[in-house]
Amino acid sequence: xxxxxxxxxxxxxxxxxxxxxxxxxxxxxxxxxxxxxxxxxxxxxxxxxxxxxxxxxxxxxxxxxxxxxxxxxxxxxxxxxxxxxxxxxxxxxxxxxxxxxxxxxxxxxxxxxxxxxxxxxxxxxxxxxxxxxxxxxxxxxxxxxxxxxxxxxxxxxxxxxxxxxxxxxxxxxxxxxxxxxxxxxxxxxxxxxxxxxxxxxxxxxxxxxxxxxxxxxxx
Length: 219
Hints:
Elements: H1 2-17, H2 24-33, H3 52-67, H4 87-96, E1 105-106, E2 113-114, H5 123-130, H6 138-145, H7 181-188, H8 193-199, H9 201-218
Antiparallel strand pairs: 1-2
């Protein structure tokens, strides 16, 4: 077990450092200090063991690379401002999408308990933590923000108006009668799950790979 933990940790560190993203060394130091590589991925479901979070993250990376190999030209849906897909983006989005789970669970074995003192949030919390150390491209932000797919729709809902939440299904709330069609499209770009999936299918692939790896870990 100890050997596997160290192997997974080194693989992730090597992949992240290969991006040469400014601040990455500080982010990795944070991951080590906060025991990202020892953390479980859930309380009693997928990856509910020491090192489960890192194993899950590496698994999602491997799946997404198989679906979208580096330097391959893939469709961008309707192509409204298609964003470049790079190998660095695949590494950063997959390997860091769940840093929100650092400190999320308490215990030494299954079943773990939720740490009520940990900040609330999932995708948004991951983005907040990551951006303390490195800058993300627009596509990396979208891939991490929407990696929960339909399961993340509830996360940022406002009780008073579900469509004005930060993570709505549709972005129609951004429309303005005074805007031109082009201005309206620009205002809505990436502001909803539907929009992000429609214009950059790799965001949807990220979700499917996360789900596939989760199901594999459960089996």
